[in-house]
Amino acid sequence: MSLPQQHQSKTIPPATHLITHDNHAYDSIQNSSSTQTTLLSEQAHINDVFTENIPKRVGLSDMDGIRYMIFGSLFILGVDSSLFPLDTVKTIIMSERSRQLHKQNVFRMIYRIAKDEGILRFWRGLFPSVIGSFPGQAMYYMAYESTQEVVDKVLANNSSHGAIFTKGFLSGACAEIAGGMFYVPADIVAQRLQIQSTRGFVHNSRLYSGPLDVVKKVLRNDGIQGFYRGYFAYVGAYAPASAVQWGSYELFKGILFRTTTFLETRFRINSKPIPAKENIVNGISGGLAAICAITANNPLEILRIRTQLLESRNKKDAESIRRGYVQLASSIFHEEGWRGKL
């Protein structure tokens, strides 16, 4: 028995209507799916860009180690030599033990030294500093790159911000410890020449005729260990600073590189990458890292210089040597307050 035609048409739609309706639904679903896929694809691309690793580091295994040490040392020697007058001024200021000298104007002090002793006074002590810096820099860079490779293996090539900071932090500390074996003896000689004044301008009136005279007197009075007086003060001052500097540098570099790459992709700046992006990122990262290092280092740097300038033939210095590093820090704070540390 068949259903009436009218009832049948209401119950079972014509085949053509079903096909048309299904096609519209399919097209709608397909378009929606396509749009969603496009959005997800764009978001995934942005996420990939933002989490993209910084360009691969050129490690020790990728370069000629001997040439790296030589050219790296020569570059640093050039920088250190040009900045040596500033180091001399800093050493003179940090070595002073009286409140009165801490209060005097720095520019007036520089003018007075130049007027009394000539402009070359600010380069006194450069030669022994250069002699010690060359092997010191070579050791520094070798230790830094070697530690980077070791820590990278231990962390299994982890590229998180924490891992990047840790690698730079540990590498910087180890580099300073190794380099200090050459830096400290050179500093012992150079600093004695930097602070001495032929006109009694500073507290140290025990004059030396030159670098060789310093070497002879240190050996005669203190032996070979005299050249390493203040080594632990050096490590205490510079290892944390170097660790903070390199850890911050590697961290900032990763963050800034990923951020600039994200901005390029997200906003499509001129549809081209930022010109010299790596150089810009490296420069900004280095500046920020230096600020972090100086902030952490300055009080420890004053202790280092004061310790390295102690001489056993002076009664007050001999007492400071006997009492040790911590007592010296306490004495500076007690006599000069926070200004003595800054």
From TrEMBL:
Matching Pfam families = Mito_carr
Q: Where in the cell is it found?
A: Membrane
For this protein, the record's InterPro entries field holds: MCP_dom_sf, MCP_transmembrane
Q: Name a single GO cellular component.
A: membrane
The transmembrane residues are none
From the UniProt record, list the Solcar repeat ranges.
Answer: 63-150, 166-255, 277-342
List, alphabetically, the Gene3D superfamilies matched.
Mitochondrial carrier domain
* Membrane topology qualifier: Multi-pass membrane protein
- UniProt-listed SUPFAM superfamilies: Mitochondrial carrier
Keywords from UniProt, A to Z, are: Membrane, Transmembrane, Transmembrane helix, Transport
UniProt keyword Transmembrane present: yes
Query: Where the protein is mainly located, per its record?
Result: membrane
User: What family does this chain come from, according to its entry?
Assistant: Belongs to the mitochondrial carrier (TC 2.A.29) family.
What is the protein name for this chain? Uncharacterized protein
